[in-house]
Design goal:
mainly alpha
Length: 139
């Protein structure tokens, strides 16, 4: 592989990681918002600021181009290894969060709906994938 192709794939992986973190923060806000009974203007402002902050973090850190098309795997073997390890981290985090929710289900049963939990699980998966890729690619 050419050095330019490797750099392009590394940039694409960084964009995927930051986009996953952005989506994870957004989904966490969406999943936790219905639990708040007495929403106020400062809380709504804080949620909007968190959403905009995570979006700008994605745009500034990851950049955004339309030239890079989505690929399921990377040509570079090292990047494929990072991606595979990130998926393993996602599965472990999902199993841990589902087990924790199962153990705490008695106290959560009346307050949390199925859609909130599904959104929470998606948020956990997105955050863990993005953080895992960033953590591994910093070396």
């Amino acid at each position: 592989m050419k050095q330019q192709d490797i750099k392009t794939e590394e940039k694409f992986m960084a964009q995927n990681a930051w986009f996953s973190i952005f989506m994870g923060v957004t989904l966490l806000i969406i999943s936790g918002y219905p639990m708040l009974n007495h929403t106020s203007v400062p809380l709504l402002f804080l949620g909007s600021a968190a959403f905009l902050g995570s979006f700008f973090m994605f745009v500034i850190r990851g950049g955004f181009t339309w030239k890079l098309s989505y690929r399921l795997t990377y040509k570079d073997e090292y990047l494929n290894t990072i991606d595979t390890i990130a998926y393993k981290h996602v599965v472990l985090a999902l199993l841990f969060s589902m087990g924790t929710i199962y153990l705490c289900s008695d106290s959560l049963a009346l307050q949390v709906s199925h859609s909130m939990m599904a959104t929470f699980y998606l948020a956990v998966m997105s955050l863990v994938y993005g953080i895992s890729i960033l953590w591994q690619s910093r070396d």
